[in-house]
Amino acid sequence: MRVAIPLFPRFTALDAVGPYDVLQRVPGVEVVFVGHGRGEVRTENGMFGVSCDATFDEVSAPDVVVVPGGIGTRVLVGDETLCRWLQSVYPGTRFTTSVCTGALLLASAGLLDRLTAATHWGAAEELNALGARYVPERVVEHLPQRIITSAGVSSGIDMALRLVELLFDRQAAEAVQLLIEYDPQPPFDAGAWGKADAATKARAAEFARSRH
């Protein structure tokens, strides 16, 4: 089973690496990082690089697609090469998925038209403008359409575990959860927009502006 994860300049590391680390734990799953060209692609802050092993043209029939997010998605909305690739591989995938603002790229390719979808809370209006309907949920499934979207960054791990269950079975997903010791017990309870107070939201906005 082949999982394709598109990379692009200024992607968010955990959006790609989180699902990668979950999915590659299952025997028989191959994960390939694809892009406009082969070679290293750097994350939002330039501190971390991941290598694209293949171009879009070289991966024409993946079983699963996981589109990460990041600041770089804004430049790629409407990108002809990526949109064409997503549209061409989607009919043959078992699932086409996104993490965070990767949903903007699925929507840009027309795959989320009139569907509810998750993304980072900061990109809700952008997602709606592209024809989808944002909902503040961690993972949103449209199984008849074989599309799953997840919210910001860390939610990609949840989505990938659900993918393992759908592709294999629940015990496989639980085995992977145990292998990565994914047992969240955060020291704070501010991980969703509805839980954070005004001061926390203001600080988060300040941090976000500094990355643009």
Strand runs, count = 11
Q: Give me the CATH fold name.
A: Rossmann fold
What's the alpha carbon Rg, rounded to whole Å? 16 Å
Content of β-strand? 15-25%
Range of helix content:
25-40%
What structural class is derived from the secondary structure elements?
alpha/beta
Order of strands across the widest beta sheet? Answer: 5-2-1-6-7-11-10
CATH architecture: 3-Layer(aba) Sandwich
Question: What is the general shape?
Answer: globular
| Mean pLDDT over the residues | 97
CATH class: Alpha Beta
Instruction: Name the quaternary structure.
Output: single chain
What name goes with the CATH superfamily?
Class I glutamine amidotransferase (GATase) domain
Low-pLDDT stretches are none
Number of domains: 1
Largest sheet: 7 strands, mixed
